[in-house]
Structure formats: C-alpha cells, structure tokens
Amino acid sequence: MMNKPIQLYHLSNEIPVIICNNEFQTSKILISLGFGARDENLHEYGITHFIEHLLCQSVDGDTSFENLKKKIEILGGNINFYTNYSKIGCSVNVIPEHLINIIKVIAPQITTPIFDNKKIEREKNIILSEYKRSVDNNSWSMLKFENLFHGTGLGHSVLGTIETIKSFTATQLSNYYFSHLTCDKCNIVVAGQIADTNQLLSTLESAFGRIPHIPYEHSILPIQQTVMHDLKPDAQNIKLALAFVAKISDDPRTQILVSVFRKILQDRLMSVLRYEKGLAYFIQCYTMGVMDTKLYAIGTEFSPQNIEHAVGIIATVCKDLLTTKPITAQELYIARNVIKFNNAQIIDSLDKSCDLQAQHMLYYNKIYDVGATNQILEQIKTSDVMTLGQTLLCAPVSVVTQGPALECDVKDIWYKHFVV
Q1: Residue 171 CB coordination number (10 Å)
Q2: What b/e readout covers 375-393, taking b as 16+ CB neighbours within 10 angstroms?
Q3: Model confidence over 49-59: pLDDT tens digits?
Q4: What is the DSSP letter of 215?
C-alpha cells in the first residue's frame, strides 16, 4: 500500500484538519472535541458522556440514534460516538464516494444538537443501565482510577454516578456543551481514499468553520499517594497495582523513553515471576491517565499465599535494574524493534492511525510522524533509559489491591526490598 505524505491544514477558525490520503478501501473521518470527563466538577460527573449520548440522536425527523444510523448506512457507512477522560469522539467509516455526504449528515449532530427533555429522560434509563453493567464488568478498572486518581479529574467513572446521571437537565447539558465546544480544542482527521482534497476542505469549512473560540483551561490537580484494599472474600486471586507518582514530562521524547523502559522492565518481571518462579500468569507495565495527569504502573495478580513473596520479587527486580543489573544494549535493541513494530501496525490500520493522529494533535498540537519517532528511538541510549527508570521507580508508590483479605502490608514489602 502506497501512502501519500500526511498533510495538515486549518479551517478559518484554526481547527486542525489532518489528511492521510492512502489506498484503504474505505475512508474515515474522526472528529475530536477536546473536553472529557477530566474537565468535570463533582456535581457534573458523567455530563460529558451524557452529552455524547445526545449527540447520537438525529437532529431532524425521527430524533433517535436509529434514524441517524439509517442515514449513515444508506451512504455505506458506520458511525460511533465515544467519551473518555480527554475528549468526545465522533468516528465514521464510509465507502469513499460518500465521504462528502457523510460530513453533511454528521455536522449538525456536532454543531446544532438537540437537548430535549423527553429524550433526556429516556436516555437516563439507558445510561443507568450502562453504568450498572460497567460496575459489574469493570470493577477493577474503576477501583484503580477512583483511588489512584482521587481528587483529580480522573478519579471518577466516565459514566458518572447514579445521582449525577439522574440529576441532569436540558438546560444544564446544553449550557455545559456550548461552553466547552471550542475550536482551539477540536481536531479532525480524515484518512483513506480522498478523491478531491479541496472539495473535502471546503465541505469541512462549511460544516465546522464557525465553531467559536471559548477560553477555558483544563485543571491540573496533583496526584496523591494512596494505599487501599478492596475486600472480595470470594475471589481466588489478589489483583495488584503498584502505581508510581512520578513527575515525568509529557513531551513525546520522554514518553517514548517511558515505552522503552516499560518494555524492558516488563520482560524482566515476566522472566522471573512467570517463567522462573511460576507465580503469575501475566505482568503488565503500563501508563494510566492522560496528558499531565499520569501514573506509571505495574499490574498483575497472585494467589493470596504468594502475594508477599511475589511483591518482594517485583521490588528486588526493580532494585537490581537500577543497581547491580543495569539495562543492556541487547534489551534496548529488542525494545526499539518491538515499539517500531507496534507503531507500524498502528499506521497500517485505518482506525488506529486516525485515533493516534487525533490524540497526538490533542496532546502536542502536531501530527504524528512515525519516521521521527523511529529516529528518536535510534538516538536513545541505555543511560537515558536508566535515568528515566531511576526517576520513575524512586517516586512515591501507591498500592491498590482487590481480593480476599490481605495478610501483609504490600507497601511495606515494597520499601523493604526496594533499597537503592
């Protein structure tokens, strides 16, 4: 597949438009509205997600999602709205010849949505059902965010609470939406087969060029160290998250360094805990949060009788990495190539590449360049990764566990074995 260079344009109100013209058999447009659950105050928890549901309702005729879905399907497309902590996304995949018509269908959903009391009351029941299902299916994920990010914009479920979901009114929802819909926090990504770039840009200008600039700033609140255990007497294993409250820059190079370090540390932990000791099925090193509000975590689960021994091993492996067994050139070489491969897979995917471009523009106000990323990877030295690892692992650690009763203090075990 021969891809043309990615192009960056701007509408008259400065909304960035990223165009990735390539030979996929479908086209995609992703519209990102740069406000999410992290912007909500206590009494507003879940309001962004509720608004997303209302954006799905057709603005004319039968005002339902079913009607909007039919309009999209007639043009050979598929639509999806979603909310996360940093944005609302409107994503449409379509056969290329109907890309322009799809934009004309979805634009009013974004610019002139209907906040109707009857629809709102109906949607409350749907969202309450979604909330209950999420609690049942994602209790561990919700537990981690609510405790590890307590007191920040990420310390609550994107869905909100039962109380807030029930409380929203048409006036409240409308006022919130139009006070946060601002051109300087939106971006548009279009990828796939694009027959006429000028026509596309003209259509986008007509559709979104009048979204105004509304000044407001995201609140960045400090992350506090925490320790908690969620008792689940009937659980067979204890789930564990060790989260490091590290002050690490959110610039692209530093986050690439984080990816390299995570890969190397995860491989070392897997080697000992799974392949040598047989104590865990998996170990995952991952980043939680968005933008300037992030934690760097080690996640796994153990049987209750193994938890003390296993946490001691994790702490010892981390200590050894920083002291007696530093990162090797071979480990760095492997991590580079794995990250390059993962990035190439993203670029080869229409959906994932659009998501990546939108996120990169939202975070860094620039297009994502896989070549530049690979160049940074090649320039990274083992000493760079060691310095990053020192900053990360020596930061205050939070501990969240879930399962049967704990017979030990996980935090104490960590600090007993992690002595550098």
Answers
A1: 10
A2: eebeebebebbbebbebbb
A3: 999 999 988 67
A4: -
